[in-house]
Predict the structure.
Amino acid sequence: MELFPTTRPIPTTVVPIPARNGKTRVPEHRRARMIVAGTPVDLCGTPYVLSTAAQRLTSGKALAIGSVNLDHIHHFGGIERTRHNLVTESNTMEWLLLADGMPIVDRGNELTGTHWPRLTGADLLPEILHLAHTTDRSVGFLGGTPLVHELLRRRLMRNYPGLRVSGYWSPDRSVVDSDELSHAVADDIRDAGTDVLVVSLGKPRQELWIDRHGDTTQSRLFLAFGAATDFLAGRVERAPSWMSEHGFEWLYRLAKEPQRLTHRYLIEGPEAWVRLRGAYLVSDSNHPAHGRAGTPQVLE
C-alpha cells in the first residue's frame, strides 16, 4: 500500500505570470507534481495549501500536510524506503507533500520551467492557525516537551486570542513507537474534539504516526511540520532570511546543533541529493507525464 496517497488539485482558471529570471511563474493556485525516488512532491503556493486545508476542514476526506526536504527523501525515498513503506491495512490517509528544501524546489523549477515557492512548515503553521481561528476550529499539538508547550501556550494566547486549543500531548518515544499506547493517545485526541492536529515528532515518526493513527483521532487536518512549533514558541531561532532564501538554512541549523544534525546533513543528505536527479513529473497521482524528467507540465 502506498504510504502517501496524494490529493487531486482544486480546479482554477489562471494566467501564467512571467518571472524576472525568464522562467514562467505559475500563479499559486496551480499545482504540479513530481516524483523523487518514489516520493510524491507537490509544487504549489500558500494560497493552494490554504484553500485545500479550508475545504478539508468542512468536507471530504481528512488531509495530512507534510514537508519534503532531503531528510524526507532519505527516510521515505532512499535507503529507508522499504522499511517505512510498511503501513497498516486500515490506512486511508491522504497526503499533500510540499517542497520545503531548496534542492527540492530547484529540481521542481528545472523540470517544469517555472518558478515555485519554497513552502516550510514554520511559515505555513501561523497561516493555518489563523485559518483555524477564523473558522472556529480546534487545534491540538502532539509532540514536543512540556517546556515548549508552555512557551507555545503563551505565544498562542498573545497572537491568537480566542483560538480553541484542544490539548497538548507530549508522549515519550516508547509511547510513540508502541501501536497500543499510541492508539490510547489518539483516543484522547479524539475525545478532546481536535479538528487540526499539529504533529511534531520528527521524521520519520511524525509521518508514520499520522499514517497509522490519524484515523483514530477523527481530526480533519494533520500537519507534520517537525520543528515548526519550536520556532513558533520561540525556543529555536530561525536562520536569517538571506540564508533561507539562498538555500543555506541547513548550514545555520548545523552550526547551532552540530551534535544532532551533522549526520543528517553531511552523511544522509548527499545520498538523498543524488536521488533528485531521477525526479520526474506526473500528470496526475497515478500516471507519469510523457517524457518523464525534463518535460514541462503543470497540472490544472
Remarks:
- The chain has 13 helices and eleven strands.
- The first strand starts at residue 17 and ends at 18.
- The radius of gyration is 18 Å.
- The chain has a mean pLDDT of 78.
